[in-house]
Structures are given as C-alpha cells and as structure tokens.
Amino acid sequence: MGRKITDDSFKVTVADGHQLGGDIYLSTIELDGEKRDVTIMVIDPDNIKGYVDEKDASILLGREFLDFFDVVFKGKKRTIAFYNP
Predict the structure, then answer these.
(1) CA distance 22 to 85
(2) Where in the sequence is the domain holding 70, given as residue range(s)?
(3) Alpha carbon distance 62, 25 (integer Å)
(4) pLDDT tens digits in sequence order for the chain, 85 residues long
(5) Strands 79-83 and 3-4: what pairing?
(6) End-to-end CA distance of the chain
C-alpha cells in the first residue's frame, strides 16, 4: 500500500488540452529479493484543473491506435517499441 507524498495535486496536460489533477504516492516493492521505493503518479480524469491550446498539448495514444499496435515499454532501457501483430 502506498502513501500520498504530495500536498497539492499537480497538473498534467493531455492531448485534448485539458489539464487534469493528480497525486504522487510512494510505495515499497520487492523485486528479485530486493526492496525498492517506487513513486506512482495517479491522474484523476474527473479533476479538471484548466485548459490549454491543443497545439501545446502532449500526444496521447488512444484506443484507435492501440487496437492496431502492441506497445512495449522497456523500463531499464527507457525505450518504447510498437509492433503490428
């Protein structure tokens, strides 16, 4: 179980320009017998904090994209790969 480590929610800008609020939690996991602290960002889609012009927003991979590609994120290498099965 993680504990919330942010006092105020932060803003994340999504592809349609909405700025959503989120919180950061700290949790400890065990991986290969070693305990590690992990921070997890939780974004609340109902917590709308504002709006920016769409040209300033980040790209968000939507359902239509993910229906055609498999996406693999490799954390250690910090890479992302797309496969068309």
Answers:
(1) 34
(2) 3-83
(3) 25
(4) 578 887 777 888 877 788 888 888 888 888 778 888 888 888 888 888 888 876 666 565 566 667 777 878 777 777 777 777 7
(5) unpaired
(6) 36
Task: Spell out the SS3 assignment of the chain.
Answer: CCEECCCCCEEEECCCCEEEEEEEEEEEEEECCEEEEEEEEEEEEEEEEEECCHHHCCCCCCHHHHCCCEEEEECCCCEEEEECC
Number of structural domains the chain divides into: 1
Query: Rounded to an integer, what is the distance from CA 47 to the centroid of its chain?
Result: 15
The tally of CA atoms less than 13 A away on the side-chain side of residue 53 is: 2
Distance CA 19, CA 12 (A): 5
Per-residue CA distances from 5 to 8, 20, 27, 63 (Å) = 9, 18, 10, 31
